[in-house]
Amino acid sequence: MSHKMRYASLAFLLVIVMAFGSSGLISPKTHAQDGWQPLSFAPGCEAGGSIAAIEAIDELTVKFTLCGSDPAFPSKAAFSAFAIHPSEYLEATGGGGELVESPVGTGPYMLSEWTRGESLTLVRNENYWGDPAPMQTVVFRWNAEGSARLNELRAGTVDGIDNPSPDDYEGIREDENLVLYDRPGTNVFYIGLNNTFEPLDNVQVRQALAMAVDRQRLVDNFYPKGSLVATQFMPPSIFGFTPEVTWYEFDPETARTMLADAGYPDGFEITLSYRDVFRSYLPEPGLVAVDIKEQLEQNLGLTVNINVMESGAFIDASDAGELEMYLLGWGADYPDATNFLDFHFGATASDQFGDKHPEITEPLARAAALADPAQRLPIYVEANQAIKDLVPMIPVAHGASATAFAADVVGAHASPLGNENFSVMSVEGQDTLVWMQNAEPIGLYCADETDGESLRACEQINESLLAYEVGGTAVIPGLAESFEVNEDLTEYTFHLREGVTFHDGSALDANDVVLSWEVQADAANPLHVGRNGTFTYFDALFGIINKPAE
After folding, report:
1. How far apart are CA 341 and CA 234, in angstroms?
2. How confident is the prediction for the chain on average, in pLDDT?
3. CATH of residue 391
């Protein structure tokens, strides 16, 4: 992500707990049925992950025991990658295949038809446990060109679009038939550098590249008003941003000297990869790629070959560490440094930047286990400084973006998390709402996806233990109506809603929660399949156990 955020303090966590009830504590409910046997997953902390156990206490109570304090666990539990699936369906699909193409959830909409390359059609869940969606049908369509999306919106063939081109913002604001909804820049666009490729294994080379890119020029030429030049990987609005650490100044002369000192006075040849998908953090990928190529060739004498890839193949290759230099970005999943820093640079992060750096991973691990923001922030200064010194990537921009809707769409909005909720939208006189985004979903089993286009579709179909408020970042009840946490933030007990059913008619229970998490957590589980088996979010945030040796 395409694509969400976390809590920074114990005090904030307590506010969340209190929001789930006057005390945050309720007696477990027991609705035992004949033959129901509780599941448990208890690898222990010696296995290498950060979850010691997940237990179905009774049919509507599930307990998570963690290996260390985690004040952000509620925000993680709200994220769509950790949605709950019926255990019977997980087993019937073998953890992949039909599960990727035809998800079964508890959400306000359910999948009707996915015509690959054309559209995705959702229909209202008439048995939804919450407020029913006002529209009978929601159709997802996609087009990579911002101008084409806007033309369809103006023609009335779609009701809303994601990421209109920055040049069109003013025209949309002036059009009485349309409304522009600004989305804050809770994201980062970066140039990834993989240190397993020569000469990117030389830190001086990476530092020279960092000084040779005019980031201000890129923001001025290709980003909408309200976008910021990145001074570090963290956006300023997210906890973990440390103003004490600023990025290298644009200095091509020093960069050339540094490159020569590293042994490359005449430059070198390198491939710059990207996917041609308009994103909030990268509104004009093709133009930006060409500009970066020209800058590096002019400022450092490099030979830069551009490689345009299909979106899914690009994401898979970057996660696997197969790309030497590439254009990618990240949007907040929950409002905390762990979502940005741990996910990308932590010990269990993907291989996109190559070999990990203990100078980065060790402070991140220390900061993630603390509840007090006053104790955490100095550690993030240390981590952000190490990221600057070691240059696993070049942060370029925090991009402002927007959605645009027809003026008659009630409930239209833009979410800072990119998870617009169509179950609160309606158009008088219509039974179908048509949404057009930048690209087609890659898969609909979002435990094994990271692109925003897939996640947004999944979020209409599947639900997690907790949820985010519509158009915001606050955590609210989801499939769990309440939870409690122990004093050291290592035990979270969730109490599920009564009477919730999946789209296939099966009843939600604690076993569904245990298995939905276990199949991600344990690579040895036969259902740990997904679309490509990466489960990137789970691995980065909790650590997958029993992974085969590389």
Report:
1. 8
2. 92
3. 3.10.105.10
